[in-house]
């Protein structure tokens, strides 16, 4: 269960891209081999591709694999890097929460259905809300980890000072 929870985005992105690739290969094979296509396969491939992209974005965010500009952080002294990271994380948290809210509104306004499968756009657009919410959770995790980094030197300093008082 822990593996599934820890790798939620990666598993769903893998399943979605696997379905996308399978549908495209099957459709090409049927089109050129037998002269017909499965009418809903293109819609399913596009929907799964959208889901794989957004879950991939969330996964990369979780592992801090997105490109970043760390010129400012490199210029800061060591003591200021973690607090600066916390400020940046709060900014990213605000952005992710705003985007989650806006994507929720967008999802709730989805009243159309796809032409062939008849699938509601609510399901298709739901990935936006889900992934921006996951990214908000990951940002909170980053903030808690950075706060722990700030507290560790203070705690070890307190232990050292209490040991020197005992001597």
UniProtKB/TrEMBL annotation:
The keyword rRNA-binding does not apply. InterPro entries: DctQ (IPR055348), TRAP_DctQ (IPR007387). It comes from the Bacteria. It is a multi-pass membrane protein. It holds the Pfam family DctQ. Residues 22-148 form the Tripartite ATP-independent periplasmic transporters DctQ component domain. Signal peptide: none annotated. It is found in: Cell inner membrane. Its main location: membrane. Part of the tripartite ATP-independent periplasmic (TRAP) transport system. Belongs to the TRAP transporter small permease family. PANTHER family: 2,3-DIKETO-L-GULONATE TRAP TRANSPORTER SMALL PERMEASE PROTEIN YIAM (PTHR35011), SLL1102 PROTEIN (PTHR35011:SF4). The complex comprises the extracytoplasmic solute receptor protein and the two transmembrane proteins. This is TRAP transporter small permease protein.
């Amino acid at each position: 269960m822990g593996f599934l929870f820890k790798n939620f985005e990666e598993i769903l992105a893998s399943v979605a891209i696997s379905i996308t690739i399978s549908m495209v290969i099957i459709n090409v094979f049927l089109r050129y081999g037998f002269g017909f296509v499965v009418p809903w396969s293109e819609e399913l491939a596009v929907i799964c591709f959208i889901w794989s992209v957004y879950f991939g974005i969330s996964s990369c965010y979780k592992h801090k694999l997105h490109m970043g500009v760390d010129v400012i952080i490199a210029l800061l002294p060591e003591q200021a890097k973690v607090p600066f990271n916390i400020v940046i994380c709060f900014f990213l948290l605000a952005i992710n929460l705003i985007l989650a809210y806006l994507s929720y509104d967008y999802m709730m306004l989805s009243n159309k259905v796809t032409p062939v499968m008849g699938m509601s756009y609510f399901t298709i657009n739901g990935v936006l809300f889900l992934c921006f919410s996951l990214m908000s959770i990951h940002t909170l995790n980053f903030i808690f980890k950075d706060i722990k980094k700030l507290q560790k030197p203070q705690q070890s300093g307190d232990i050292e000072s209490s040991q020197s008082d005992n001597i």
